Amino acid sequence: MMRGNYVQQLFCCLALGWMSVSVATANEEANTATQMRLAQADSVAPPSSSETPKKKLDVKNVFRNICGFCHENYGRVAAKGPQLMSSERTDEFLFNRIKNGLPGRMAAWGSIFDDEQIRLIVKFIRSLKPDEDPQNP
Ligand code: HEC
Asked: Using CB atoms within 10 A of its CB, is residue 33 exposed (0-12), middle (13-18) or buried (19+)?
């Protein structure tokens, strides 16, 4: 009886030991697999967004569909919003006004367009000419 118990305990310990070893191995395998996947992802991941813009913003389209409601004719004439073409404001002012808006006057577009896109919008505004069809920057 005593001896049987001992054997049983021994067997139990062995079994537990084996289980923890196999769990550890499984974990290690999972870790290695994750690391390999990460390494692969690294090597095929596109360069960070500061190097290549995702999809270049179609500013002309944005103006036609959104801003044009108040900045008519791509901002070339004053309407509900002021004329933007030939603005004497600094780039920084235009950038900040688009990004942060002006409460009660114009919405803040900072949650819709990222900084890079807003810079593109400013570039578009700067390129506006009275007698030329606006082009995307
Ligand atoms: C609902 C009308 C409305 C819409 C839509 C709108 N704006 Fe405006 N925007 C205004 C008004 C009004 C002002 C003038 C705010 C003020 O009193 O200084 C303004 C000002 C600006 C200015 C600063 C011009 C200046 O000289 O003060 C810029 C730049 C501008 N808007 C760009 C945009 C762009 C880009 C969009 C589209 C993404 C847009 N706006 C959409 C109404 C609008």
From this structure: exposed
Q: How far apart are CA 81 and CA 97, in angstroms?
A: 12
CA of 59 to the centre of ligand 1 (A): 15
CA of 55 to the centre of ligand 1 (A): 24
Question: Are residues 102 and 27 in contact, defined by beta-carbon separation less than 8 angstroms?
Answer: no
Residue whose Cα lies nearest atom 14 of ligand 1: it is 81
Cα(67) to centroid of ligand 1, in Å?
A: 7
Instruction: Kindly report the protein residue whose alpha carbon is nearest to atom 16 of ligand 1.
Output: 105
Number of Cβ atoms within 10 Å of the Cβ of 128? 19
pLDDT in tens, the chain (137 residues): 556 666 666 555 555 555 555 555 555 555 555 454 544 444 455 555 555 656 899 999 999 999 999 999 999 999 999 999 999 999 999 999 999 999 999 999 999 999 999 999 999 999 999 999 999 99
